[in-house]
Amino acid sequence: PRPIPAMSKKMEGLAAMAAGAKCEKTGMFSRWKPDWEGAAAEYERAATAFRIAKDMPNAVDAFVKASQAHVKMDVGFFQAAKHLESAAFLLRDLKQPSDASTLYERAADLHEQDGRIDAAAEALSKAARAVEQKDTARAAELLLRACSLIDAEEEERILRMGVETFKQASALLLRAKRHKEASEVLRRQSALHERLQQPHGVSRCELSALVVALAGDDFVGAEARYASALTQTAGFAVTDEAAMAERVLNAYTTQSEEDLLACINAHIFNHVENQVATVARSLTLRSAGVPMSRLTPTGAPPAAAASAPPPLDAAGMAEFGEIVPEGELDDDDLT
């Protein structure tokens, strides 16, 4: 068959738009109320015609009007949200990222009202991607909102999907040098992995959060988080990531550039997210100031390790989670 001329499809689209507008009007033959179902169908037909005609600005307008008609129908917002996402996709192609982001965010609101939290979080992620190159602050806000939606969920499927959202958020925040917020997102991601019973994810996030805190000049926060992870995160104390975290902290408390360099070049950092690995390998002793009270002679453990010693078993070892009096610890217990 011969291709349909673009002009004829555009005219078809304009006619459908006019028909949709007519459906919105009230009168004797419409029982004095708008025909929103008819309007939605006409606007959808117009959007299809405009896309075939490659008239994308009019297609955007048609999708937005179709969305509005579906909202007025009050039978659920799924189709209304999808039409907004279609319009946003076209706006990205038209190099209008801010407007695209706005429509994705409106779609997320509709998904959330319908209880589709996974779809809402995904739409917010798309909104963030649309503007991350030009408006990092807005993109970060959108991703943090998506993370909060996921945090409040219980369904395993949504939690698993949410891991990628958390990774996207921390990577964006790190690119923007917002280390404190990135570290907090990584800690929240660690809790998410714990809920999913993913111990490797927990360990990598705890180590990543510590590294990012140090990059943000927060030694005290990094040390406190390490101590907390040792006592409150099941199984973390016996992982390679916990051992590396202790070595990194010890390099700072002993002010050993050599030890720190050996840590950040270790193979373990090949298994964290790329942006975190980049941050780790940029660490120097100047990245985080260490309080005088935390400085220790070479070879002594960091305060965090001393505050959360290993457990005693029948042979004299401490049971994990107990605080052993300092006088009961020998040199072997502190290594």
Low-confidence stretches: 308-335
Query: What is the number of helical segments per DSSP (H or I, 4+ residues)?
Result: 15
Strand/helix succession: HHHHHHHHHHHHHHH
Number of strands: 0
Q: How far apart are the first and last residues' alpha carbons, in Å? A: 79 Å
Outline type: elongated
Helix content: 55-70%
Structural class: mainly alpha
User: What gyration radius follows from the Cα positions, in whole Å?
Assistant: 28 Å
Describe the sheet with the most strands.
none
Indicate the proportion of strand residues: under 5%
- Let me know the average pLDDT: 89
Give an overview of the whole structure.
The protein has 335 residues and is mainly alpha-helical. It is 66% helix and 0% strand. The chain has 15 helices and no strands. Helix 9 runs antiparallel to helix 10. The longest helix is centred in the middle third of the chain and has 20 residues. It starts with 5 loop residues before the first helix and ends in a 28-residue tail after the last helix.
Keywords:
single chain; 15 helices; mainly alpha; disordered C terminus; elongated
Q: What's the short version?
A:
This protein is an all-alpha fold and 335 residues long. Helix content is 66%, strand content 0%.
Please describe the topology of this protein.
Blueprint: H1 6-24, H2 36-52, H3 56-73, H4 78-93, H5 97-113, H6 117-131, H7 136-151, H8 156-175, H9 179-195, H10 199-215, H11 219-232, H12 240-253, H13 257-264, H14 274-280, H15 303-307
Helix pairs in contact: 1-2, 2-3, 3-4, 4-5, 5-6, 6-7, 6-8, 7-8, 8-9, 8-14, 9-10, 10-11, 10-12, 10-14, 11-12, 12-13
